[in-house]
Amino acid sequence: MKRRNYIKNTLLGIPLVLLSPAVLSSSCHEDENIMPNGKKVIIIGAGLAGLTAAKMLKARGFDVVVLEAQNKVGGRLRTDRSLGVAFDEGASWIHGIDKNPITRLANESGMQTFHTKDEDWKAYDIKGALIDSAKFDQVEKEYEKILNTLMKSGKANQSFETVFNQLHPTKVNDRLWKFILSAYLTFDTGDLNKLSSLYYNEGEEFGGIEKIATNGYDTIPNYLAKNINIQLNQRVTKIDYSTKKAKVSHNGTTSEADFVIVTVPLGVLKAGKIEFLPTLPSTKKEAIQKVGMSCVNKFLLTWDKAFWDDVQYIAYTPETRDKFNYFVNVKKFHPSVNALITFAYADYARKTETMTDTQIIDEIMTHLRDIYGNNIPMPTKMLRTKWQSNENAYGAYSYTAVGTEMEHFEELAEAVNNQIFFAGEHTEVDYFSTAHGAYLSGVREAEKIIDLQ
Ligand SMILES: Cc1cc2nc3c(=O)[nH]c(=O)nc-3n(C[C@H](O)[C@H](O)[C@H](O)COP(=O)(O)OP(=O)(O)OC[C@H]3O[C@@H](n4cnc5c(N)ncnc54)[C@H](O)[C@@H]3O)c2cc1C
Predict the structure, then answer these.
(1) CB 318 within 8 A of CB 325
(2) Residue 14's pLDDT is what?
(3) What is the helix, strand, coil percentage profile of the chain, to 5?
(4) Residue 431 and residue 9: Cα distance in Å, rounded?
(5) What 3-state DSSP class applies to 432?
(6) Does CATH place domain 16-114+211-290+399-451 in 3.50.50.60?
């Protein structure tokens, strides 16, 4: 289903050039056409932001080295193919394909996609009771109205949940409302009891349909990584920018550069896993602390035979919010694969990371048996994510927690001394939490460094 369920002001204020990966295509010259400019850039992190910046800077003659902690590129664009189907552990969708830079990157890199129709769904209440689509539509409309108005009652120190519960006490325990808030809002943002009641609906969107990657979102970073000097298994622990050349410590060695771009996820910055010398400005530190980092976990389950409805999405409204409450039917885009993908969000997502595979499967099967009966077969295999405890991310993506101001995203993007630059989805005030936000942040920081020449 669609993250950010309705379209706000699309494309406001973004120069068209930034929306076009032609910025990158034009930088895909062969090495011999590039005139070295004598400046070195170290980019920390080979996710979409880092690789985008690397490609642009290399094309402008910079000596670029990417230091990546993991043994592969892509970061939160990460695909597991061990069960014979591409399971995207991080991003799956291009959210709104119109003018979205990811659309062109997908075409150029060979990432295949499928139109996941938002209207192709069935929703079930507990005991398998089918939810009437008129009732669903009506709650969805009311939800959109509430989303447009709740901030008027919002307070700087109150969460979305606190204000919602005060304004709509009768909806608090309604299972359909729990589902809508969870699948539409928490999935998109973060824990409702930590989400800002003022800025829960920020950011811009692209128009057009939603498309899901079918052969793996990692197709894009693998394409961008070609001909870039990337050093894998290099975990950066310290950046010393007290001298003219910055010194970056990784795996017991130190590398020097004129410029450094830090693209590690906000969760890594929050966890203080990289020491900065001198310490970062207090405004930057405050922004790192105030902007929230959500948790979403994904689960792919396979069966020998499909027993579920032939629709794109199966929604379920359990008592526990954020718990395996909708299923993506993989068979719709891989007809020979009998698989479903389901999700856990926020605190329930964190809880799943302490559960065994058997416990997870038991909980998911309880929901599916409630819908389809006790005779359905057990899954043959499961793949799962643990984004909160993942030391390369410590969470899924950034969101506006209580206390976040939109300026905090801008502060996260501020360079320090024109020497240390920051990119990554969490630095894009208009498109944070998305793949296109990560891409745009890489373009932005590369341009800043190019402009200094
Ligand atoms: C579960 C989930 C679902 C999502 N769904 C969607 C979706 O459907 N559509 C969408 O548009 N977006 C989605 N996103 C968001 C999208 O995946 C991210 O916004 C984007 O991939 C972030 O790119 P990035 O370059 O900013 O960061 P990353 O991809 O995280 O790259 C940062 C890199 O830094 C590396 N690193 C970390 N610490 C160190 C260190 N100390 N030293 C060296 N390297 C380090 C990491 O290993 C990583 O490779 C989803 C994300 C998640 C987690």
Answers:
(1) yes
(2) 44
(3) 35, 20, 45
(4) 12
(5) coil
(6) yes
C-alpha–C-alpha distance, residues 356 and 353, integer Å? 8
**Domain ranges in the chain with CATH number 3.50.50.60:** 16-114+211-290+399-451
Closest of 67, 66, 58 to residue 39, by C-alpha: 58
DSSP 249: E
- In ligand 1, which atom is closest to the CA atom of 297? 1
Q: What's the pLDDT at 199? A: 97
> What spacing in Å lies between the alpha carbon of 69 and ligand 1's midpoint?
13
Pocket test for ligand 1, best of 206, 392, 421 (most atoms within 8 A of CB): 392
Q: What is the phi/psi pair of residue 329, to 5°? A: -85, 105
The best mutation among 100, 296, 397 to test binding of ligand 1, ranked by most ligand atoms within 8 Å of the C-beta, falls on: 397
Distance in Å, CA 434 to ligand 1 centroid: 9
pLDDT of residue 453: 87
Among 52, 76, 298, name the best residue to mutate to test ligand 1's pocket (greatest count of ligand atoms within 8 A of Cβ). 76
Quote the tokens at residue 429. 């005030």
Ligand 1 atom 17 nearest Cα: 91
Residues within 6 Å of ligand 1 by CB: 44-50, 67-70, 75-77, 90-93, 95, 235-236, 263-265, 268, 273-274, 296, 298, 387, 392-393, 396-397, 424-425, 433-438
Give me the residues paired with residue 213 across strands: 113
Ligand 1 mean position, distance from CA 310 (Å): 32
Q: Which residues pair with 421 in a beta bridge?
A: 261
Q: Is the pTM of this model over 0.85?
A: yes
Helices (H), 271-402: 282-290, 346-352, 357-372
Closest CA to 106 of 220, 196, 249, 234: 220
Structure confidence at residue 22 (pLDDT): 54
Q: Whose CA is nearest to atom 50 of ligand 1?
A: 91
> What pLDDT digit, counting tens, does each position of 304-345 carry?
999 999 999 999 999 999 999 999 999 999 999 999 999 999
Ligand 1 centroid vs 41 CA: distance in angstroms? 21
| pLDDT for res 33 | 80
For 24, half-sphere exposure in the C-beta direction (CA atoms, 13 angstrom radius) is 31
Looking at the domain 116-201+294-384, which fold is it? Answer: Polyamine Oxidase; Chain A, domain 2 (3.90.660)
Closest ligand 1 atom to Cα of 433: 19
Ranges of residues in the chain with a pLDDT under 70 are 1-32
Cα-to-centroid distance, 91 and ligand 1 (Å)? 8
CATH 3.90.660.10 segments of the chain = 116-201+294-384
